[in-house]
């Protein structure tokens, strides 16, 4: 019996969440394949017992359209041939105790 009450409460919470979402988007109409929300059947309850508080509706996440993945670092580096060449020269000169002025000039060209 408690499982049935819990299931009924979950269904009602889901219905309320859908209803709130449909109210939040007044310009959009309900899709054709989504059934209309059904009205809950009111059960006879003794008048002496107070009604339990309704559970908070669970907000469903909004679906975000998949975006194209960001390009990788290597793809970005190899897009520009001149920049790739300057980076390669900087790497080769950085391994040696070479001319620092030349390295700064290459860094300036990279900017």
Blueprint (SSEs and pairs):
Layout: H1 2-24, H2 73-77, H3 81-95, H4 100-110
Commentary on this structure:
By secondary structure, the protein is mostly helical. The protein has a domain of 38 residues. Helices cover 49% and strands 0% of the residues. It is built from four helices and no strands. α3 packs antiparallel against α4. The chain is rod-shaped. The chain starts with a helix and ends with a helix. The relative contact order is 0.09.
Average pLDDT, all residues: 74
So how many helices?
4
Order of helices and strands: HHHH
Kindly estimate the percentage of residues that lie in beta strands according to DSSP: under 5%
How far apart lie the N and C ends? 71 Å
Q: Would you report the number of β strands?
A: 0
Rough outline: rod-shaped
Major sheet characteristics = none
Classify the secondary structure makeup into a structural class: mainly alpha
Low-confidence parts lasting 5 or more residues at pLDDT below 50? none
Question: What is the subunit organization of this protein?
Answer: single chain
Biased composition (Pro residues): 49-72
Biased composition (Basic and acidic residues): 1-22
Region (Disordered): 1-73
């Amino acid at each position: 019996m408690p499982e049935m009450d819990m299931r009924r409460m979950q269904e009602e919470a889901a219905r309320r969440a859908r209803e709130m979402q449909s109210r939040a988007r007044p310009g959009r109409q309900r899709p054709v394949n989504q059934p209309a929300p059904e009205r809950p059947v009111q059960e006879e309850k003794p008048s002496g017992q107070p009604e339990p508080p309704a559970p908070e509706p669970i907000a469903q996440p909004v679906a975000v359209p998949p975006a194209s993945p960001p390009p990788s670092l290597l793809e970005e580096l190899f897009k520009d041939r001149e920049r790739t060449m300057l980076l390669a020269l900087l790497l080769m000169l950085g391994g040696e105790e070479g001319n620092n002025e030349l390295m700064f000039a290459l860094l300036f060209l990279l900017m």
